[in-house]
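Journal club prep — side note

Before the paper discussion, L.F. wants everyone to see what a predicted structure for a comparable chain looks like in token form. Sequence:
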Amino acid sequence: MIRRCIDEDFESIYLIVNDAAGVYKGVIPSDCWAEPYMPRDELRAELDAGVVFWCREREGEIAGVMGIQAVADVTLIRHAYVRSSMQNQGIGGGLLSSLRERSAGSLLVGTWASATWAIHFYEKYGFRLVPQDEKVRLLRKYWTVGDRQIETSVVLADASRQGRQSAG
């Protein structure tokens, strides 16, 4: 079952994000890694900034989470994570498909350039890497990230939505 997260899901979201983000350790630049990867106050700030999390439940527990955030004229996919013990079972793909149906206009996602598995995941679902100069422009316009993260990230756009609405 896929449903919108409620306040009572906060701790589960926190635990899933930090469990699943463990794959980044030693892959992303060390100056971009922190323990926990996303502290509770940062997660709370993301929610306060308009990130709406959705979750997929399996056998009565939250198996994965994915957020969407409307920013100006686009929708961003934010913080997509599946419990490490439940990965590669279609949970992330199900969440992504559901959020695509709930979103209109341009749909963008950012991830670490060195997280090739994440890039391949989004490409499998019809997203395409944007060129470097466009990446920088989009990250500066729609995300609140520092120069180091801009330097070490990529942006992918939902190719099925190109032409429906400009990405800014």
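L.F.'s comment for the group: The longest strand covers residues 61-71. Keep this in mind when we get to the figures.
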